[in-house]
Write a structure and sequence with these properties.
The chain has helices at about 5-20, 45-65, 90-100, 115-130, 160-175, 190-205, 225-235, 245-260, 275-280, 305-315, 325-345, 350-360; strands at about 30, 35-40, 70, 75-85, 110, 130-135, 150, 185-190, 210-215, 240-245, 265-270, 290, 300, 305, 360-365, 365-370, 385-390, 390-395. The chain is of the alpha/beta class and about 425 residues long. Strands 1, 2, 3, 4, 5, 6 and 7 form a 7-stranded mixed sheet that branches. It contains 12 helices and 18 strands. The longest helix has 20 residues, at about 45-65.
């Protein structure tokens, strides 16, 4: 068992004990420790993404602590995270945040995984005026409700599959077709994130005059989309879009291979966390994958170095990963944002920290961080990667591309 995984397991066990006895466990600052609280998916349908995120949190905490921690008013503090398992259930997220704030006395929080649990978390932190920096809730609807205590390192969901529509239009024109002649088939999970991704993709589809021929919701358990794929196979779309987190991406790729379904452009979210290249090999070739971050991008900071330095260091610490999922990188960036805020605020007061977070503008290995008044990061773009030769290479937008796009996608082997 890897040391980092042992720490992760100990955190789970500690959380279970705390739940069992329901007794106060940790104040917001205890001795020389600053304690952050997180209700996150350790079990349930988002458990893999939850692990990706918590591994990213822990990796950054370890890096900051090795450098001496965070200095506030001349004293150095180590960071520590208290985790609870929200079981991938939004209602449980809200319950656990109440526990973190009221019973554990923790006043600084990290986001859960996915937009649904994050949506459930926000009324709680707003009620108690507790700042949260989150990495995994991308739905733009999270930032239209007037919440003041949430700040997100990641780009919002309108930037996920919309770039694939622009790329499809560009490629169609290059190959002598009008963008308006393209047919689009879609399969989306019925959750806030995926539905928001869908809405933003539809806006782009309408902008380019494309036609939607299939627009289906995935079943709740995300285990079978064969009925949708049967329609896609019959209608022969030019573009297939899929968004269903890790399980949805796994199901779609597996069943597309089994049923012989393909299109010149196939784009889906969560390729990396679904480990498509490991699970499906050649059958994953050519899939376009929106990503919040890539190791080839020219970002740098004084903690981790370049994006590539972070990538290499994380894989060395976690050999169980074949690549670094963007969920992991953005979780590490969240810890950097908190550390930066404590040192700029020189205070543990939650209101002062909220205002300090709101004024954040910093460079990280993950990208530039600057929050809008709504709390979302407005300074970092998303990019599209394509699976080529078993690797994820950036192909769009052009100014960020490391490799040319392979088009049309070949039939999966």
């Amino acid at each position: 068992m890897q040391p980092a995984f042992k720490r992760y397991t100990r955190a789970i066990c500690a959380a279970a004990v705390a739940l069992a006895f329901a007794a106060p466990a940790a104040a917001k600052v205890e001795g020389d420790k600053i304690i952050l609280g997180s209700a996150i998916s350790i079990t349930g349908k988002y458990s893999q993404e939850g692990k990706n995120a918590s591994d990213g949190y822990n990796f950054a905490v370890d890096a900051i602590n090795r450098r001496g921690g965070v200095k506030v008013n001349g004293k150095s503090y180590k960071l520590e995270i208290k985790y609870y398992d929200d079981e991938s259930t939004p209602a449980r997220t809200a319950q656990l945040l109440e526990r973190i704030i009221n019973q554990d006395g923790i006043k600084y929080t990290l986001g859960p995984y996915a937009s649904g649990p994050t949506k459930a978390a926000l009324p709680v932190i707003e009620k108690y005026k507790i700042p949260m920096v989150e990495a995994e809730g991308a739905s733009r609807s999270l930032f239209t409700q007037g919440y003041r205590y949430v700040f997100a390192a990641l780009s919002t969901s309108d930037q996920y599959l919309a770039p694939a529509m622009d790329l499809a239009a560009e490629l169609a024109e290059k190959h002598g077709k009008k963008a308006s002649s393209l047919k689009v088939a879609m399969s989306f999970e019925n959750d806030p994130f995926s539905l928001d991704v869908r809405d933003c993709a539809v806006e782009k589809i309408k902008e380019h005059g494309m036609k939607i021929v299939v627009d289906d919701k995935m079943p709740r358990d995300l285990s079978d989309i064969s009925a949708t794929l049967t329609k896609m196979k019959a209608l022969k779309p030019d573009i297939i879009l899929v968004s269903g987190h890790t399980k949805g991406a796994t199901t779609a790729t597996r069943q597309m291979k089994e049923m012989g379904v393909n299109a010149p452009i196939v784009a889906m979210t969560h390729c990396e966390s679904a480990k498509l290249t490991t699970q499906f090999g050649a059958a994953s070739e050519g899939i376009l994958c929106p990503t919040q971050w890539a190791e080839s991008l020219k970002y740098k900071d004084d903690l981790f170095g370049t994006a590539k330095d972070y990538y290499n260091a994380f894989l060395k610490a976690h050999p169980e990963y074949k690549i670094v999922p963007y969920q992991t990188a953005q979780a590490s960036a969240v810890i950097q944002i908190w550390a930066n805020a404590f040192e700029r605020a020189q205070s543990f007061d939650t209101e002062k920290l909220r205002d300090t977070l709101a004024a954040t503008e910093m460079e990280t290995f993950y990208g530039h961080i600057k929050f809008s008044k709504a709390g979302n990061n407005v300074a970092k773009p998303m990019v599209l990667r394509q699976i080529q030769g078993g690797n994820y290479v950036v192909v769009a937008p052009t100014k960020y591309a490391s490799d040319p796009v392979e088009y049309p996608r070949k039939a999966p082997q």
